[in-house]
Amino acid sequence: MSGPFHTALCERLGCRYPVVQTAMGWVADARLTAATCNAGGFGFLAGATIEAGSVDTVINDVKARTERPFGVNFHMFQPNAEEVLEAVIRHRVAAVSYGRGPDAKTIGRLKDAGIVCMPTVGALKHAVKAVELGADIITIQGGEGGGHTGAVPTTILLPQVVDAVDVPVVAAGGFSDGRGLVAALAWGAAGIAMGTRFLLTEESPVPLSALDRYLTTREPSVIKVSTAVDGLPQRFIENSELLRLERMGLPARLAMSARSARQWGKEAGIGPLGMAKLGLKVLRGGDNSFAQTVMAPNLPTLVQRGVVAGDPDRGLLPSGQVAAVIDELESCADLIARIMREAEDRLEALTGKETD
After folding, report:
1. Predicted model pTM
2. Contact call for residues 228 and 242 (beta carbons, < 8 A)
3. Domain residue spans in the chain?
4. Cβ neighbours of residue 198 under 8 Å, at least 6 residues apart?
5. May I ask the CATH class of domain 8-204+329-351?
6. What is the distance between the alpha carbons of residues 47 and 270, in angstroms, rounded to a whole number?
7. What DSSP state is assigned to residue 94?
8. Over the stretch 111-143, which tens digit does the pLDDT of each residue have?
9. CA 130 – CA 112 distance, rounded (Å)
10. Beta bridge partners of 140
């Protein structure tokens, strides 16, 4: 594809359209990632939530489903971070996405292997720092987005970062259609990234019992940011479990975290000493407070209950505010085709010229 929609993002990642599927934990599996790539977008596999010892198997599953390039997400504080790093280099994965964990040496190791480094940030200063460390592309996530997010809206953060860095910028937070793609390109972005919209596709592994809750949520105000889960701001669809957590005092939440940590460590094959070392690594390596580090195990336990077990009342449902305007499941192919058709129509309406 040529013309205004063949951007620097398409050139760097080898995708047909400037549409990225983000690496949602326990959601962006091999099937969803491959379906996105086959539809012309660029999919990121959620490497951060792959079980230790299974990374090669899951990457091979993606490769068996698509011949298109794809990416893998990771963070340096996951127990099998080195396993993921070695696997993406060995498999010559096209790109990696990450937060602020990797240092310049790790990023250099990936770049030396020809892998595009594409962190996600929620603040201008973090975007600038990421480029200094070697990022090739920056994804900015505005406050409308799901998962851990900053407070700055996409409409403010995107032009700020575009003006401040000299690498392509991808916009995330509030996107679901072709109008959003055209708007992002007009602000100077090289494309859009979507999580919630891809979560709500036919290829999503999320059980229908949870998907129905997303699809029937019509009010953006109940898709709220809370710090009650692990001490960091994260957006969820409000439910009884989230309200219960928000009513808890800190001691009760810390006690709950201890139980979650024991269960998570048991499932991951990590003993008490290993858990203590991992917690110390997190505490030393980022901006987390002691309370945030101790509370971190709450998140995987409750999110898995929501999006893996499909319990929308006792689990948690991470979501961007854009869920409030999504009312149907589409296949990845239909979704991306619709986005591009809408974008072409919108651009023609603005310019009076047909797009290529």
Report:
1. 0.89
2. yes
3. 8-204+329-351, 209-321
4. 21, 22, 24, 27, 28, 32, 36, 204, 332, 335
5. alpha beta
6. 18
7. S
8. 999 999 999 999 999 999 999 999 999 999 999
9. 17
10. 121, 171
